[in-house]
Design a protein that fits this description.
CATH architecture of the largest domain: 3-Layer(aba) Sandwich
Strand content: 15-25%
Number of strands: 11
Low-confidence stretches: none
Order of helices and strands: HHHEEHEHEHEEEHEHEEEH
Shape: rod-shaped
Number of domains: 3
CATH class of the largest domain: Alpha Beta
CATH superfamily of the largest domain: Periplasmic binding protein-like II
CATH topology of the largest domain: D-Maltodextrin-Binding Protein, domain 2
Largest sheet: 7 strands, mixed
Length: about 300
């Protein structure tokens, strides 16, 4: 049973006339008659009584009508769903993000804009360190990640787009002697205890902190290692030590913490969108087409 035969049948059933049904289907009457005859031959029953008054459905025709309509409706629905999936309007998008990303405006803005534009796409959000995100991008477990630069053996296998460059700030206790300054060089902190990101996480900010301290002429004395920026700030608030954080972390509003700009060259942290080059995901394509609005961090 061909779909074109069912369409022809419904057109004749609804119009009760072969000429009008043919015009509705944008075909001539002979091919329409042939399609109805072919359907009747396949079913072994007459579907219409032909006469001067038009085409009158038989009992078989009346019985077939609701089922034929349901089949065509299902096919239309299936075709529309396929088209929507192909346009990235349905499906899912797995998004990874480092723990500090929600404090920056760029990630919430992009997720909000994506949700508004494609509300039927399921967002799967996973908080992960940058290195773990790269592993999952390569394995196909993530579609896109908000990461910071980090060392990874397959770093060049991942496509990266810079979406925000944040200044790095020094976080220190408000009662620290250096808190009275407006800005500071890391060299002035060579004797201070530092709070660093854990080496087990593969955090790019740990590597960057160590590199900046080394460029300032010293290796930092590590008082404590942490997994996330909010934890680092809370330990600064407790007077455990000092540390470097992205400027957006000022929104954490932890008491007894002062943030100072750094005079050192390279004291910034990039936020990157990372994705696998050959990922065919249509929702990913739509996500990458979004443009973050220009704003401060």
């Amino acid at each position: 049973m061909e779909l074109r035969h069912l369409r022809a049948f419904l057109a004749v059933f609804e119009e009760r006339n072969f000429t009008r049904a043919a015009a509705r289907l944008h075909i001539s009457q002979p091919p329409l008659s042939q399609q109805i005859q072919a359907l009747e031959a396949e079913l072994g029953v007459r579907l219409f009584e032909r006469g001067r008054g038009g085409a009158t459905p038989t009992a078989a025709g009346r019985s077939l009508m609701p089922r034929a309509r349901a089949i065509l409706d299902q096919m239309h629905h299936a075709a529309e769903q396929a088209r929507r999936a192909g346009r990235g309007e349905t499906g899912s998008l797995a998004v990874g993000f480092a723990g500090s990303m929600p404090f920056s405006l760029v990630m919430p803005q992009l997720l909000r804009d994506f949700r508004a534009a494609w509300p039927d796409v399921a967002l799967q959000l996973r908080e992960q360190p940058s290195r773990a995100q790269i592993d999952d991008l390569l394995a196909g477990r993530l579609d896109v990640g908000f990461i910071r630069p980090t060392s990874h053996e397959h770093w060049d296998a991942i496509e990266r787009r810079l979406i925000l460059r944040e200044p790095l700030l020094l976080a220190l206790h408000t009662e620290h002697p250096s808190a009275r300054h407006e800005r500071l060089s890391l060299s002035a902190l060579r004797d201070e205890p530092f709070i660093l990101y854990s080496a087990t996480l593969g955090s790019g900010l740990r590597e960057q902190t160590l590199a900046l301290c080394l460029a300032a002429g010293f290796a930092p004395r590590v008082a404590q290692e942490v997994h996330e920026m909010p934890t680092l700030i809370s330990l600064v608030s407790a007077g455990i030590g000092v540390g470097l954080v992205a400027a957006s972390m000022q929104r954490a509003q932890m008491p007894y913490v002062r943030y100072l700009p750094l005079e050192d060259a390279g004291a910034y942290s990039d936020i990157l969108l990372a994705f696998k080059r050959d990922n065919p995901s249509a929702p990913l394509h739509n996500f990458l087409a979004l443009r973050p609005a220009s704003s401060d961090v």
